[in-house]
Amino acid sequence: MAANTTKHATHADPSAQNWRYIVRLEKVDMTFGRVQALSQIDFQVGRNEIVGLVGDNGAGKSTLIKIVSGVLRPTAGKIWVRDRPLDLDDYSVRMAHELRIETVHQGQSLGEKQPLWRNLFVGRQITGPFGFIDVKKEKEVADRLLLQAIGFRGHGISADSTVRDLSGGERQGIAIARAMYFQADLIVLDEPTTALAVSEVRKVLNFVEGVKAGGRACIYIEHNLAHVHEVADRLVLLDRGKVAAEFAKGEITLTGLTNQMIALHEGRAHVRG
Amino acid sequence: MSAVESARKRFLQVEGLPIVAVLLILVLAFMISAPEVFLGYRIYMSFLATVPPLLVLAVALTLVIAAGEIDLSFPSVLALSGWVLGYFIHDLGLPWIGFVLALVSGALVGYVNGILIARVGIPSIIATLATQFLWGGLTTVLSQGLSYSLGDVDQFLLWRLLVGRIGPFPVQALWALAVAAALWLVLNRRRFGEHLLFIGDNARVAEVVGVNVKREKIRMFVLMGVMAAFASVLLTLENKNFFNTQGGGYLLEVMAAVFIGGTSVFGGKASVVGTVAGSFIIGMVEAGLVATGLQGFWVRAVVGIVFLAAVVGHLVIEEPERGRASLRMLLGKFAPERKVPP
Amino acid sequence: MRALAPTVAAIGMMAAAAGLPAQAQEPLGAGITMYFQMGGNPGDGSTLPRTNGAKAAAAAFGVKLVEQYSGWQPEKMLNQFKEALAASPSCIEIMGHPGNDAFAALVADAEKRSIVVTSGNSPLTKLKDMYTANGFGYAGVDLYEGGKLTAQKMIEYGGLKKGDKALSYGLRAQAERGKSDQGLYDTLKAAGLQVDYIEISPEVDHDASLAVPILAAYIQKHPDLKAIGTQHGNVTAFIGKALQDAGKKPGEITVGGIDLSPATIDGLKKGYISVTLDQQLYLQGFLPVVQCVLSKKYGFAGLSTNTGAGVVTPKTIGALVPLIEKGIR
Question: What's the burial of A36, exposed, middle or buried (CB within 10 Å: 0-12/13-18/19+)?
């Protein structure tokens, strides 16, 4: 069964139907000691929008989505979810989940030594009386999910399998299946195609398009410009902690995008103030 | 996977089965080599009186190691909590208050450890090594270097309840098994336990899936402290004595029990059942060898062999590729034709 | 005549008054600093009475006492001697565990600097003979003789005969400490008993309660065992438990041990322990301080005192209990 609705406004909540942005960051800064990872970031994701987030290594992409997903608290700025402001002291991964924001982090979404059923439900375990985890139920749901999710039939993988036994693509599939099971309205993907076989990459891209078709939103970080250029409704370029440029679908070609990236890297393009 | 392969895998997945099998084989071997001792009930009653403190410590430590940490300070809790209990019984005649305060002292040690490790960021091996000296030294000061004989403590209800005898059967064995069962449940059926496993697996992953790593680590060390204090109470009451140097002989034994049991030193994977079996193996082996007629000199060597065999065995089961490669490398040194890789 | 009594009283009072300033004089050991090797760890059963004796003597004589604890490790004792040398005290007390040769150069250095060196617990005969004139004495038991005495008393009180089976549980692997177990073993053997030997493991050495199942197993394996002897203080305390676990009644097996830790009281009282060697450890602490003061101030020669008075039995334990609990006996 799907996860329950909570007290926060969600996609399905009729009282909050008229919001524009599922998430919006305003003038967000993130400083680690003396390092300014993000400065004055204005970033938003529309209701049914796929936002491609690109930028060179160290641009701040991972930091940005860690803020969106509740892992990091920004040093300055505001965050709105479904046009309602967040109390940044309260915001956490758990609250992000309650707000139906799910994230697939690069290479660190799953506990490698843990079985799949545990990975699926960690942080929101199905519990029975006295708060004991209902392992049987979790395994049942996990098995069902494996059948439904990205191509797991007949691979000898079960709910008891350890993540370590899975290939890169299969792990990605699990992490994404988890996000979908908990009915994400916004799904954030951090470099989902790294270390994937070609066929598996195609599956991920199809999935991203499916998210859009289902009326949901997605932030998609991608190194491979061809992939993201194909699926994104809007592209945001991050450079050294700042938003360098934004392009709507069709506004820039792949070649143009590539050149922009190179120019930024070489310091010739302007950074949008 | 073939039918044989999957059957083998399912067999090996029953928690702790391999090491329980080793324990049973060991007992069987002792029954054969020393029937006058191991076919009677007395020696087992003796074990059931001495293994419980070791078992409680080892099971608690299993959770700590599952979370990727270590605690070297528990011998000092054995001393400190033992002193608290001993003082309250010997000097003040207040066994129950002494019991509660003994547990509190263990919690205090654990809390300090937790703060040093989770908040200040000192690696657990260093922090707990340091606190080991701190609390051990404090115990010597508090006890003025004296040991207490708790003479007729067996008259007290507390004594009868915790370490009394039902016939020849030592009650502390029941308490130890209850602790083991409770901690098994915590590790495998409680959110807290899953959090510890994730922290030990990969602290970064734990963070992004919503685990409050700092808070859970502090809780875990407090739990370890309380369990160590409980072990100390069992030990002190059973001995009817507080020795202010008690505890030091347990450090290596407890760690051996945990790793023989199959818990991974890297964290993320742990077996409480294995630790229970490991504790009995460690607790029994010297007596068994002595009864067999082997010199005590052999004991450490045998423990070492069992330890290595268990660790390699677990490796082979967990990671067949690495396990086979290790075996090939070991045997490679003895097979003259093979070249050991540079 | 009526004036006689008051006169005598007056003279008596004046004499007393003349004597008073003498009493208000400085204590004998004022200004003397002594570094003292206590041996084990603070509070140890075999260390505590020594510490208390040394402290009492130091307080009585006004000596500044610096306690050193080495956990019975010879290398540590040598290092601590070097530390003592660096502080240039009046006296240093050492133990024989490292051996005469290891100490020779260090003691020579100390002697050259007019530091009084004396010894206790375990002898350094060669060095003692060299420096007796400078105050090098000995206050302790001859370890071998101690083990021998224990065994002799075991045989006497236990009625042990030729051919009886006995177990010696000890630390023969340790060079100095092992001599006491050797003495016990040899004596039992010489009396015609069949003696088996087991070495105490490091874990048991530290936490003696771990010996219980081991001894219980041995006892059960050898039902006709007549005697168990050890010279390990803490292990002595737990032999009674092992006998209980093995189903033996007090007196069925003659048990010989050493020292009088609080835990041993139970065993003696209940009759599980037959004899225990009394090292009178308190004297091993007290006497070297006296030696220090007398030799430093007045140049008296070193005195050798055997502090091992004999054994304590279930019959004699009663009177000693209050002193044991205070860490004096």
Answer: middle
C touches A, CB cut-off 8 Å, minimum 3 pairs: no
Two tokens, residue C303: 């005195």
CA distances to A210, B309, C297 from A20, rounded to whole Å, are 21, 63, 97
User: Looking at residue A58, what is its pLDDT?
Assistant: 82
Partners of residue B299 in chain C, C-beta under 8 Å: 201
Q: Give the CATH number of domain B3-334.
A: 1.10.3470
Q: What are phi and psi of C206, to 5 degrees?
A: -85, -45
Greater confidence (C267 vs B55) lies with B55
Region(s) of chain C under CATH 3.40.50.2300? 33-141+280-308, 143-278
Q: Which of C203, C245, C265 sits opposite B249 (nearest CB)?
A: C203
Model pLDDT, residue C143: 83
Regarding pTM above 0.95, the answer is: no
Q: Tell me, what's the pLDDT at B280?
A: 96
- B275 Rama sector, left if φ>0, alpha if ψ -120 to 50, beta otherwise: alpha
CATH number for the domain whose boundaries are C33-141+280-308: 3.40.50.2300
pLDDT digits 0-9 by tens, A6-17: 445 454 554 557
- Shortest distance, CA B321 to any CA of chain C (angstroms): 37
**Phi and psi of C70, rounded to 5°?**
-120, 5
Tokens describing residue C279: 């090292």
pLDDT of residue B291: 85
Q: Hey, of B1, B6, B209, which one would you mutate to test binding to chain A, going by the most A CBs within 10 A of its CB? A: B209
**Longest CA span, chain C:** 89
Give residues with Cβ within 8 angstroms of C230, minimum separation 6: C168, C169, C170, C181, C184, C200, C236, C239, C256, C257, C258
CB B258 within 8 Å of CB B72 = no
Q: Alpha-carbon distance A183 to B76, whole Å?
A: 50
Q: Which two tokens stand for residue A80?
A: 């709105």
User: Torsion angle of alpha carbons B197, B202, B205, B206, nearest 10°?
Assistant: 40
- Which residues are paired to A217 by β-bridges? A186
> Which residues in chain C have Cβ-Cβ distances shorter than 8 Å to B235?
209
Structure tokens at A187: 């799904």
Chain length of chain A? 273
* Of A245, A244, A204, residue with least CA distance to A228: A204
Phi, psi of B283 (to 5 degrees): -70, -25
Instruction: Give the SS3 label for residue A53.
Output: strand
Please tell me the CATH code under which domain C143-278 is placed.
3.40.50.2300
Mention every residue, 6+ apart, whose C-beta is less than 8 A from residue C326.
C52
Looking at residue B298, its pLDDT comes to 77
Give per-residue pLDDT as tens, C134-169.
999 999 888 888 899 999 999 999 899 999 999 999
- Which residue, A185, A197, A192, is CA-closest to A61? A192
What residues in B contact A110, CB-CB < 8 Å?
Answer: 205
Dihedrals φ, ψ of C161, to 5°?
A: -120, 170
Of A251-265, B169-183, C26-40, C56-70, highest mean pLDDT: B169-183
pLDDT-derived band of residue A1, with 50, 70 and 90 as boundaries?
A: very low
Domain A21-266: which CATH number of 3.40.50.300, 2.40.50.140, 3.30.70.580, 3.40.50.970: 3.40.50.300
**Hey, are the CB atoms on B208 and A103 less than 8 Å from each other?**
yes
| Spatial distance between the Cα atoms of C188 and C182, rounded to a whole number of angstroms | 10
Chain B contacts of A112, Cβ < 8 Å? 201-202, 268
Give the C-alpha distances (Å, rounded to integers) separating C6 from C2, C16, C17: 8, 15, 16
CA distance C325 to C329: 8
